[in-house]
Design brief:
The strands form 7 sheets. The chain has a 9-stranded antiparallel β-sheet, with no helix packed on it. By secondary structure, the protein is an alpha+beta fold. It starts with a helix and ends in an 18-residue tail after the last strand. It folds into 2 domains: 240 residues, Distorted Sandwich (Beta-galactosidase, Chain A, domain 5); 239 residues, Glycosyltransferase.
Length: 611
């Protein structure tokens, strides 16, 4: 009874099927999709489309099965399963149909815990099995032992799960005895008492069975590092978690757009950016994109924390200690710092880092001389030096600015500031593809597609809206984009099943659709206007721009003509290419009745609409 992605991949009748190679272990190749949950600042847990919860990839997972009067239901095998986010926040709800109603699984993070709630929305009681399994969404992992001790479940000697009450029955199994699901389905779970199991092949598993009365909810929690509360469980429920995340959404840029699907996706992706673990922010390229997305949407405090975490990796020779697989030497660190300081000049941050900037630039240039860098690495290097050099100059750090700007002649010019997602992957138009997504060897590249769309927005090309529509569809019901989308299954085919780099690239794209910055001091609001937005109000508040300037604007319609109202906190040139290509002003605030946009059409002549 394998998890969702692996069970589909192993079924010859499923579109996700791929035969396993001789000697190959369990590796998910066609169904990499999950949704991250957690508290602000991480760590984050993964929830797969069937509700399997993995506190950390590479470790054990917590599955859930429901036993009704007629039979047991395993969500990974059931067709009647649907999943969504509650109010576009990292609170994942997975609904399983049972006789007379639903079993509802909710998962969310609070400081110190990942919380699981299972609600019985049926008129009859059912049995709930919470199963510790030696799998994660990518394949088989290891579990050497599981011990059930009253309300606590320990995995490999550490507390892994805290229950709201003592279990009614317990089932255990090993590699030799087979999947613990078989024990549960045969009705062989032990009646009472504590239990434990150890497996010499490190494939131990256990299921804790509890009754859930009709119209009630059972709760459990996975500790993630903080001490437990007095009764062992956090007091926060799903509704309170949603309220907390909604309050987070009121900080920084606030946007109200006519397309409800885009609105929900943007709100969800902005929450995702706050799940990056501050102590371990992952690869530098992903962290740099997240810094840019945070900075450009007004989350300067979180961007600052992430920049400091990146620079804490610097060694004495100017190089950086990167996680396994990180191969872009120093460029993302320089670029992330420069992008953060471009939008929020801060001498207090730059001053202590001045010598570090010079050391990083020197090591980067020396590295370029020693070995050939990939095109992406070269672009990161050039963009990093330019961005950080400009920020150092603006902050008055002349020595650092001179060092960073020296020798830029001959460097490949980076893409415009607003299309920074293109640094992650060299975006290229799809070759003969039926979709507007950017294709690569591992499938459709989500971040590269967002980068290509951002470049199209900058150029005023309507194909950007086709790419955006594809991205909204590819995000699935929880707007959790994998790194690469499988062309047949629509799930992930390589990398992460919920990529924070992709979420950041999506946020950067939408921010550019609302306000782009072709050059420093020039803000272009609504460079493209989708047909579905005509006649509908748009409101965008507190957009960070170069030099610490903030811009707010609103669009109201008088028949076919739009009225633009704006206010900026500093000097800038304001245009509105998608509303009226002839409009331009340097006034800090005002309102104007514009002539109205021309039709937005796709390359083939068809009208582009979002929905």
């Amino acid at each position: 009874m394998l998890p969702w992605g692996l069970s589909r991949q192993g079924d010859p009748a499923n579109v996700a099927f791929v035969p396993r190679l001789a000697g190959e272990g369990l590796v998910n190749r066609t169904g990499r999709r999950w949704t991250l949950v957690g508290a602000v600042g991480g760590p984050a847990a993964a929830v797969d489309p069937a509700g399997l919860v993995t506190p950390r990839l590479g470790g054990w997972s917590l599955d859930w099965w429901v036993g009704a009067d007629d039979r047991w239901r395993l969500p990974s095998r059931e067709a009647a399963v649907r999943q969504s986010l509650l109010e576009s926040t990292p609170v994942v709800e997975t609904v399983l149909r049972v006789p007379g109603g639903d079993a509802v699984h909710r998962c969310f993070g609070v400081p110190g815990f990942v919380v699981i709630e299972v609600e019985n929305r049926s008129p009859a009681p059912f049995a709930l099995a919470l199963a510790i399994r030696p799998y994660d969404p990518l394949g088989a992992t290891t579990v050497r032992s599981v011990t059930v001790d009253g309300r606590e479940v320990q995995v490999d000697g550490a507390v892994a799960l805290v229950l709201a009450g003592r279990p009614g029955r317990v089932a255990t199994s090993t590699a030799a005895a087979g999947d613990v699901a078989g024990v549960v389905l045969r009705g062989h779970a032990g009646a009472t008492g504590d239990a434990g199991v150890a497996c010499p092949e490190a494939l131990a598993s256990a299921a804790i069975l509890v009754p859930v009365a009709h119209r009630t909810t059972f709760r459990a929690a996975v500790p993630t590092g903080h001490p437990a509360t007095a009764d062992g469980l956090p007091a926060t429920g799903a509704a309170a978690a949603v309220r907390g995340w909604r309050a987070q959404g009121r900080t920084g840029l606030r946007a109200t757009v006519p397309d409800p699907l885009l609105q929900r996706a943007l709100d969800a992706a902005r929450c995702d950016l706050l799940l990056v673990e501050r102590e371990r922010p992952g690869g530098a390229e992903t962290a740099a994109l997240v810094v840019a997305a945070l900075a450009r949407t007004g989350r300067s405090a979180e961007a600052d924390d992430l920049v400091r975490a990146l620079w804490a990796r610097q060694r004495t020779d100017g190089s950086f200690d990167e996680p396994a697989g990180g191969g872009t030497p120093g460029g993302p660190h320089l670029w992330a710092l420069g992008e953060h300081l471009r939008l929020r000049p801060d001498r207090g941050l730059l001053g202590p880092l001045g010598p570090s900037l010079v050391a990083a630039e020197g090591w980067l240039r020396e590295s370029e001389g020693r070995r050939a860098l990939t095109p992406v690495s070269r672009r990161w290097a050039a963009a990093g030096r330019r961005a950080a050099g400009h920020a150092a100059s603006e902050a008055g750090a002349a020595t650092a600015a001179a060092a960073l700007s020296a020798g830029l002649q001959g460097d490949e010019a980076p893409p415009p500031t607003s299309t920074a997602a293109g640094l992650l992957s060299l975006a290229r138009p799809p070759s003969g593809a039926e979709r507007p997504a950017v294709a690569g060897p591992a499938g459709f590249d989500v971040a590269a597609t967002a980068a290509a769309a951002a470049a199209d927005v900058e150029a005023g090309e309507p194909v950007a809206l086709e790419r955006l529509t594809w991205l909204l569809d590819a995000g699935g019901p929880t707007w959790a984009w994998p790194d690469h989308v499988h062309p047949r299954t629509g799930a992930g085919s390589d990398g992460d099943g919920h990529s924070l780099a992709a979420s950041a690239a999506f946020v950067l794209l939408v921010r550019d659709l609302l306000v782009s910055e072709p050059t420093a001091g020039h803000a272009a609001v609504l460079p493209l206007v989708p047909e579905g937005w005509r006649g509908q109000p748009v409101e965008v508040d507190d957009v960070p721009l170069s030099g610490g300037v903030r811009l707010s604007y609103a669009v109201r319609w008088h028949g076919p003509r739009p009225a633009l109202l704006w206010e900026a906190t500093g000097p800038l040139r304001l245009t509105a290419p998608g509303l009226d290509p002839r409009f331009g002003t340097t006034e800090a605030r005002g309102e104007a009745l514009l002539s109205g946009p021309a039709s937005t059409t796709a390359p083939g002549g068809g009208t582009v609409e979002l929905s």
